[in-house]
Amino acid sequence: MFGFSGAALSKIRAMQNGGKRARHSVDQWDRQMMDRDRRLTGFLRGQTDNVLAPAGFELSNAWKVERGFT
Fold first, then answer.
1. Residue ranges in the chain modelled with pLDDT below 70
2. Which of 12, 28, 38, 53 lies at a CB distance of 3.0 to 4.6 Å from 57, suitable for a disulfide?
3. Is 0.70 topped by the overall pTM?
4. Which Pfam families match (predicted)?
5. Residue 8 pLDDT
């Protein structure tokens, strides 16, 4: 029973990641690239080899607003 539930959970996680295994030790650079991939393809783990960005990509800016020093 434990083996079946572990395998089912692993399969569900892989399906949520676009058929890929889960990532470990994700740092800030990886999160930034995954966010960019999500904005480009619509999937967190999706990647594309298209040279041109899709329409509307220039409007989905990933830069966060920082508070200035006062």
1. 59-70
2. 53
3. no
4. MWFE (PF15879)
5. 92
SS3 42: coil
Q: b/e per residue, 33-59, with b = 16+ CB within 10 A?
A: ebeebebbeeeebeeeeeeeeeeeeee
Report the pLDDT value the prediction gives residue 54, as an integer from 0 to 100.
75
Tokens of 62: 């990933």
CB of 22 within 8 A of CB of 8?
Answer: no
The torsion angle over the Cα atoms of residues 55, 60, 61 and 66, rounded to 10 degrees, is: 170
Largest separation between any pair of C-alpha atoms in the chain: 60
